[in-house]
Amino acid sequence: MKLLIVEDESKIGEYLRQGLTEAGFVVDLARNGLDGQHLAMTGHYDLLILDVMLPDVDGWRVLKSLRETGNQVPVLFLTARDNVDDRVKGLELGADDYLVKPFAFAELLARVRTLLRRGAVPPTETTLKIADLELDLTRRRVSRAGQRIHLAAKEFALLELLMRRQSEVLPRSLIASQVWDMNFDSDTNVIDVVIRRLRAKIDDGFELKLIHTVRGMGYMLDVSDES
Q: What top-level class would CATH report for the domain 2-119?
């Protein structure tokens, strides 16, 4: 998931960028309204975190310009202005949520994830297939070479993520945010444990190994034998 933060206060902007990056997101940061508007208009983002009081072009105008062009990217407003009229104005312009400064990062992260889930387009495919591995999204079934494989709920969710992002190295922080919906705790090995269980069920007994460890980076699912 790719996010754009438009925030002119450098400490807040860097704080948000670091925190959201550690939560598994790809994050761009613009420090004024014009740059933010340009990036939002020309790039593809899954969510925009937009300060209201910005130099040159304020958040209201940035949002208005986006909506006038038909851009429906979810927008979370950040502002120190907490009166009802300001909140109503933002929502009427097409904002999806409104968070008043100062705020707790945990609350912002929860709101970001809620907006992303709300705006997600349901997948049109009912089956994912890579090599002889098949995942049936409708019946929640997995098979390899015709053999039924029984997975726990988190194993199924992890396999679906790996298959949807085939050949892409997924860091543990991203897996934690997408499968467990939590910040990555470097002291826990829960992801490694589930990966080992999933690999035992998916790869053991098959010559072609699909789940690979990329040392120091994360995990990937690929038809290549190289790890």
A: alpha beta
